[in-house]
């Protein structure tokens, strides 16, 4: 097979590479799935298939990396905008999650991945806690693979109640924890034979049950299992002695300095999800404090039934919240946190948290070609005085003209490529309506008070 090339010409390139910074009027040559060269006046290859993209008036960044997301919730967008963590845990997780069929999971994951790609997010860690049967797991993986997003699918050990809203009904579910472990092993073998991020777009990880909702010994036991299964990443863990670079902590706002020191020395990662943390009472995002202490840190979107997938908005929220916090502490002559700092968290920082920094996160020859091209010649982006500032503060998802993943164009001229939107639209709307109708029939009166006392107890610990 002959090689294929993409030549991007005349762009402003924000490489996120410390030695290169940002370069005006720059070309990028992609060979198959890899960035081959970055520089001025690159010549076209003499053979092979070549696509040329004129990127005059455009800014190119690395693809964004979203370190924590629940793709399955995409069918429920807008449902949780005024909810607290209690409402989310009780209703979304324990009612809606139970109602999902395997096909619901497929369409949710497929649509969520396309939405992320549309927003320039080329890599995601999917924390999938809707695996109600082996078929659910298969369809979750298929949705991500069909959308061709890069990332790690984290098989959730969480057990939704078999009767929606009735936590006690988990005891009647034959798909119990032991069956889940067996199934996770099957999924790892069937869908992720190599589980090598260098050669496969999607890799396998495990989403452990959340530490406050289960005893510490169980949490440790689950991590040992995840490692035996060959999980590339494991999320949600709380014991310093067993930490390692394969662990990704979501949120972590209450971590102490000594816990963060253990995160740093083990090269584990921290993901802040500003929108949900600020809304739902999960504490002030810890990313900046963790980064100051030398931890690998990044951003995530988390609950997609809540806010949109606009990563620039998430960057601004993370940045401005921290600036506000620091202004409250002392009078500052200048703002300490820069737009470039948060752009780094959204790209190379995410790659580091997901242990993929040798593959993605910056625009340098040899890395995978995951790129976002922002067209910056409209009323909202002109003039471009500071390219990093334009991306973080002015660009909207509508400015994202082209997205490339693994050397393939997945969005072009502002449109996703190869997507039958009309039929997908109908699937999303009808499935969302059915889930909401079914959830509306669940009487949560007694269950809600049982859940509330359990939740309060867990939060105290
Ligand atoms: Zn989450």
UniProtKB/TrEMBL annotation:
<dbReference type="GO" id="GO:0016810">
    <property type="term" value="F:hydrolase activity, acting on carbon-nitrogen (but not peptide) bonds"/>
</dbReference>
<dbReference type="InterPro" id="IPR050287">
    <property type="entry name" value="MTA/SAH_deaminase"/>
</dbReference>
<dbReference type="InterPro" id="IPR006680">
    <property type="entry name" value="Amidohydro-rel"/>
</dbReference>
<feature type="domain" description="Amidohydrolase-related">
    <location>
        <begin position="242"/>
        <end position="410"/>
    </location>
</feature>
<dbReference type="InterPro" id="IPR032466">
    <property type="entry name" value="Metal_Hydrolase"/>
</dbReference>
<dbReference type="Pfam" id="PF01979">
    <property type="entry name" value="Amidohydro_1"/>
</dbReference>
<dbReference type="InterPro" id="IPR011059">
    <property type="entry name" value="Metal-dep_hydrolase_composite"/>
</dbReference>
<protein>
    <recommendedName>
        <fullName>Amidohydrolase-related domain-containing protein</fullName>
    </recommendedName>
</protein>
<feature type="domain" description="Amidohydrolase-related">
    <location>
        <begin position="59"/>
        <end position="237"/>
    </location>
</feature>
